[in-house]
Amino acid sequence: SLARATPRQFRPRVGAPSASLSGWLPLPSRGTCTRCRLAQSRALEMAGRAIDSDLRKQMQRAIVKHTDMQDEMKNEVLDHISGSIDKFAGAEGVNFEAASRLIKETLDKQYGFNWHCA
After folding, report:
1. Rounded distance, CA 46 to CA 51, Å?
2. For helices 96-111 and 71-87, what crossing angle results, to 10°?
3. CA distance linking residue 76 with residue 108, whole number of Å
4. What confidence score (pLDDT) does residue 20 get?
5. With 50 as the cut, is the pLDDT of residue 39 above it?
6. Beta strand pairing status for 93-94 and 89-90?
């Protein structure tokens, strides 16, 4: 409504007095350009589709670009990390501080000290 609108949302009508509310016209809302409408329609199409199983598998595992750990140790560490994040995931999001603390404590016990988790 006009009573709740801010001055940024309205522009003065040409030739109308600037003090009256009848002198203001609403600006076009955001998202009315062709690119924005196409992006919105694509997002709505994708929102209804299920994620295919190959992509889901890739999204569930971390990508390790470089490590000096052996494959078995690397896989165990990744399992600890994903389990800790899952454990502290809630409706508000992931409690990363608690997950990091659990990851560090677990890896320190299993593989010795000097593990850092940020």
Report:
1. 9
2. 150
3. 13
4. 46
5. yes
6. antiparallel
How far, in Å, CA of 26 to CA of 2, rounded?
Answer: 9
* Alpha-carbon gap, residue 77 to 64, rounded angstroms: 11
Burial of 103 (0-12, 13-18, 19+ CB in 10 A): buried
What size, in residues, is the chain? 118
Helices (DSSP H) in 29-93: which residue ranges?
34-48, 53-60, 71-87
C-beta atoms surrounding 5 within 10 Å: 13
Q: What is the pLDDT of residue 30?
A: 54
pLDDT higher than threshold 60 for residue 105: yes
User: Hey, what's the torsion of the CAs at 89, 46, 33, 16, to 10 degrees?
Assistant: -60
